[in-house]
Amino acid sequence: MQEKRKANDDEKVVAEIMQRCFVPTLITTTCWEGFHFVGHEIRITEAMDCYGAVVWPSALVLCYFLETNVKQYNMVDKNVIEIGAGTGLVSIVASLLGAHVTATDLPELLGNLQYNLSRNTKMKCKHLPQVKELSWGVALDKNFPRSSNSFDYILAADVVYAHPFLEELLLTFEHLCRETTVILWVMKFRLEKENRFVDRFQELFDLEEISSFPSLNIKLFKATKKNRRNA
């Protein structure tokens, strides 16, 4: 009976999350996908030839979580960085919630990322989001020096998948994270690599599963550096 109730709850919340998407009523020369978050209509331009420029369900889950947990995870005036920002949807929602946002990704994705951020946050946000290149594990001390970067939150949606840069991703998490930084990380489990990465991640971070969506095979984690607790 309890398992049935959990399944019903999962289906109900997932349905609510997926309803945040909408299809444009007018066909224009620029293809875009619509979303409703934080009382705003958000229009996202995707690039179907690139995995990093598509809105995946994990991003919707994280946006929904940020919007519905504003008391516990208050974004107002917080320094927030999103790694693997892709289309920028999560960064846009965090900006609409009042955060100082730095949206990062690979160089070839920054043009579309900047376009989406600008069209959806200009004249709507307390702090305009910034776009910055971040190749995982590359020139971290130079581009994100510890002395001048202090993030309250690190946001990540679906950054773990079948690619050869998981160690570099772990190194990037570790470099950007301070003792007080909270990581909010949403992941879709597809392959055994995801489970192995979680095991490696837990060597450096205290990891807590705070939400699960079995029908999507997605989990939402909260993490902090292990030395925070020891200190």
Describe the model:
- With 231 residues, the protein is of the alpha/beta class.
- The chain has one domain (1-225): Rossmann fold, CATH 3.40.50.150.
- Helix content is 35%, strand content 24%.
- The strands form two sheets. It has a seven-stranded mixed beta sheet with strand order 6-5-4-7-8-10-9, with helices on both faces.
- Strand 7 (153-157), helix 6 and strand 8 form a beta-alpha-beta unit.
- It is globular.
- The N and C termini lie far apart (43 Å).
- One of its GO terms (molecular function) is protein methyltransferase activity.
- This is Methyltransferase like 21E, pseudo.
- Keywords: Methyltransferase, S-adenosyl-L-methionine, Transferase.
Task: Please indicate the count of domains.
Answer: 1
Instruction: Write the CATH architecture name.
Output: 3-Layer(aba) Sandwich
Distance between the termini: 43 Å
Q: What proportion of the residues is helical, as a percent range?
A: 25-40%
Low-confidence stretches: none
Can you list the strand order of the major beta sheet?
Answer: 6-5-4-7-8-10-9
How would you classify the helix and strand content by structural class?
Answer: alpha/beta
Number of helices: 8
Strand content: 15-25%
